[in-house]
């Protein structure tokens, strides 16, 4: 795999690739990387979580939030990328700079995978599909409740309240499957067969997804 292929991955996959490679050095920073990955997706107003690079303006906003006093070009020159004048930056380039790692070392490190991990990742994708359905419906109802009036607005508000408090059957089913698959991936990981970064990310996604589950049924508070 070439570095250009890594930078073409979505932000989440760039973060996982980095953590897999540098878990020994940066595993303790996984939560920070998770949160910053979310920030990067927010800054990418056009592509969101489906994006892979920030433009120069978005990158400067990231640098400001992270108290980095340099330009995109300066960072890319320091990383010795192929075209340092190209004014976009991948999330993994930001991580390499922050943790003082090199592209060369990144590409030397093994990534690894196994069947249990792949199944767990697929199960979590199914969970994310259900969460997206819920979030899309919430946005629709919130818009109706805020912009409407009278009976229509009240109905939308009531539907929104019901949506937030309802037992989400399809999501719960997907979560049960994901929890089982993640446990299997964890077991494989304890045997040294799963990349630590990918496994940590799965566990973190599962924790986040449980916020949509009623607490009396094993969910956690948002």
UniProtKB/TrEMBL annotation:
Keywords: Coiled coil. Residues 117-144 form a coiled coil. Residues 122-196 form the Calcium-regulated actin-bundling protein C-terminal domain. One of its GO terms (molecular function) is actin filament binding. GO terms for biological process: actin crosslink formation; parallel actin filament bundle assembly. It comes from the Eukaryota. Pfam families: F_actin_bund_C. GO terms for cellular component: cortical cytoskeleton. InterPro entries: Calcium-reg_actin-bundling, F_actin_bund_C. This is Calcium-regulated actin-bundling protein C-terminal domain-containing protein.
């Amino acid at each position: 795999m070439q570095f250009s292929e890594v930078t073409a991955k979505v932000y989440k996959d760039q973060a996982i690739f980095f953590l897999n490679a540098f878990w020994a050095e940066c595993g303790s920073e996984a939560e920070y990387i998770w949160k910053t990955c979310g920030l990067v997706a927010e800054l990418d107003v056009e592509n969101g979580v489906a994006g892979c690079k920030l433009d120069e303006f978005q990158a400067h906003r990231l640098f400001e939030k992270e108290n980095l006093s340099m330009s995109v070009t300066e960072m890319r020159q320091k990383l010795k990328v192929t075209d340092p004048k190209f004014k976009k930056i991948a999330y993994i380039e930001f991580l390499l700079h922050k943790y003082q790692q090199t592209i060369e070392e990144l590409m030397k490190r093994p990534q690894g995978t196994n069947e249990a991990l792949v199944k767990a990742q697929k199960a979590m994708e199914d969970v994310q599909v259900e969460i997206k359905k819920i979030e899309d419906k919430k946005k629709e109802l919130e818009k109706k409740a805020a912009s409407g009036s009278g009976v229509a607005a009240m109905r939308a508000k009531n539907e929104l309240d019901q949506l937030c408090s309802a037992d989400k059957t399809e999501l719960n089913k997907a979560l049960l499957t994901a929890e089982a698959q993640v446990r299997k991936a964890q077991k494989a990981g304890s045997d040294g067969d799963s990349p630590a970064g990918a496994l940590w990310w799965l566990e973190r996604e599962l924790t986040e997804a449980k916020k949509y589950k009623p607490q009396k049924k094993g969910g956690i508070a948002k």
